[in-house]
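=== RUN LOG ===
request id: a7f3
mode: sequence -> structure
chains: 1
length: 275
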Amino acid sequence: MKKINTFASDHLKMEYTAIKRPPFLLSGTCQGAGNPMILLHGLFGSGDNLRGIAKRLSPFFKIYSPDLRNHGNSLKAEYFNYSVMAEDVKQFMRHHNLKKTVMVGHSMGGKVAMRLSSLYPDCIEKLVVLDIAPKAYSVKQRSFFHGLLDLDLSVFSRLKQIFDELSKQTSDISLCRMMMKNIKRDTNGQYQWTINLKAILDNIDHIGMDPGARIQSTIPALFIRGEHSDFIDGRDTNRILSFFPKATIKTMTGTSHWIHMDAPDRLAEMIVSFV
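=== RESULT ===
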């Protein structure tokens, strides 16, 4: 793929621009040029988690990577479900004058994209869903996530200490690494969560629900499953096609649920070819 264009700000070379927002709007980053594409991250992620795939897609599209509500630098709110997150994304589009865009969503972000396609089908040109189906899921690692509420980050002096503590609670190292990206120091130098952990966990069962795609969509869609993931299996094909009859379902060989981290080059090529 061709080289990513960069711009200089003082002495700092940047590959993306931080998007300033009013308090009610989603925060995020923007990079590249061309037709717009929005990338939506998964649960406990952020727009930054998708930076690798955004960088690979930015020679072909103008990439917007918002932090969904209660994640990253975006608004923190009590309500947390697919309807309000879809409305957040639609408001984000209005603010940036995006009338129609390609929408790419991983896991929870894929469900947000599907919900948005049901509410506002005219605003999505094409839909790419990464390793999630339009169905309900049981919440995995529930005890691990709720245990995070009892973890006092302020007692730790180094990030490695926190990582070691998290890895005692789960064998999923990728999950631990993702959670570590949700930690930063406050103005007093103490570690804190950047996510609204309590609001997310109070509503965790809403996130396990199906996204509410109740009408048959005419939007061209690409569903990509990880070969070694169990989030989409053969039984989900009919359900996907019942809501998205123009969908193509592909398997990314050698990948887990974290397709964008396991095979970012192949994923970018597949998305560009589809769009």
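=== NOTES ===
Residues 1-15 have pLDDT under 50 and may be disordered.
The two ends are 16 Å apart (CA to CA).
=== END ===
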